[in-house]
User: Fold this.
Amino acid sequence: MLSLDRIVVDHGKMRAIWDVSLDIQVGEKVGLLGANGAGKTTTLGAIQGLYPPQSGAITFDGQPIAGRPPAENVAQGIALVPEGRRLFPEMTVRENLEMGAYLRHARSDLRRTLEHILELFPILREKAGQHAGELSGGQQQMVAIGRALMSKPRLLLLDEPFLGVAPLVIYDVMDALRRVAESGVTILLVEQNIHRALDFVDRAYVIENGRNAFDGTRERLLGDPEFGAKFLGLD
Amino acid sequence: MPLDILAQIAIGGVLIGGLYALFAFGLSLIYGVARILNFSHGTLLAIAGVLASILYGALGASPLALVAIITGLALAFFLFGWGFHDLLLAPLKRRNHFEASVGTVLTTVGALIVIGDVAATLAGPRPRNIPLRSDVIEIGDVLIPVSQAWMLAGIALLTVVLQLVLTRSWYGRAVRAVTQDHVGATICGVRSRAIHGITFGLGTALAAIAGVLYAMVYPVDPYTGFSLTVKAFTIIVLGGIGNLVGALAAGLFLGVAEAFTAFFWAPEWAPALSITLLLIILVAFPNGFGNTRKA
Assistant:
């Protein structure tokens, strides 16, 4: 469904990604792991179209999409839950969610999609009229996920969706994401907490300093002594 | 001090304040969405006023002519603003941050000088207004000129329309979304180039409508503009970026304060008031009054 072939991405004069490749099949849950500054967020941004790569290819559904504007990618079924949530603090929860259906393909089904999201996150129904800036971290994260789902994506890119979420609420969010995945949405999850990520995904890519370092299924990664030493603190 | 005189001054202040608010909100929309400080905003208001005055004479001085002038100028200025943004300002965004910010200041200040001079050359530098019939409405002891009543009606109508556009239309929601978090808006599929251009056009159209309403009550010349731009800056600092209610409150406050300054002290001091207020606000409330919520 999605493949990145040796992409290189610069932020101004700084090179953030030197050489990253990955492949994702329809219906998979894939993790993108690594330390702070490894290039995880930039990789998601490159896929969504926020950071056009300097070189390398990005293919989605067999079409080259590197450098395509974000709006075009949203219309074709890619949605991002960004780092820091990026909500509209002085718009209501309902307005925030509805903005996710801004593009024409999603507007016609807006009512039904919204209802579906309020079933996924029932607490948001109570908060629908409140400004997004007034919600707790976990509730804001639910709005960010809901907003991305409003565009009816086939590929959902999640950037640290558990950051700033209370420990008990993390289970609710993870549970909701499992249901989203079961409904057929392919997921690429960026996460710093390796254990939590491997608990959720089928397999993962690990990047280091903007380059591929490891990849494989949960079992293979956990069984790899080099991976264990580097990322799980095992000797 | 008789109460009716105070009421008279306050009404004058409210009217001009409402107009300031409308005009400042155009600047606020442009800044909120495109992050461009348009220094030529006030000059565009003045030019619209001058054009409206000339057209009003040419079209036979009827109320119908006035409606046609407002509609025509709003449309023409909308297209002008859109074109101005896309041709001169948008290319600057591809440069680095420093060049882009200095470049936009140079471009909009340059536009203010060029537009003012061209208009003064073509139309003459003398002040003009739209000479409406000078009937008055009497409410008790308070007299309201019909021209001011029309101005008030125009401001009220536009405020309601703007509020509806911002809250009910997809375009308006996109404008608020971009203003509050442009990355969030981009990943919802809002195309920034288009929304920047259209919003620049809309802000310019608001300045044009404000210009026609302004010329119904006060004389304008092609060089009137810059002091109005300063007032607009004061209002958006006071009321918050992209905040229509805040702009209205700040505009009314400034208008009434100016009216009383002019009456109790001297009219020449009224413009200095906005700059003094701006400085006091910047020093005493560096975070502003608006935008208290953060996600």
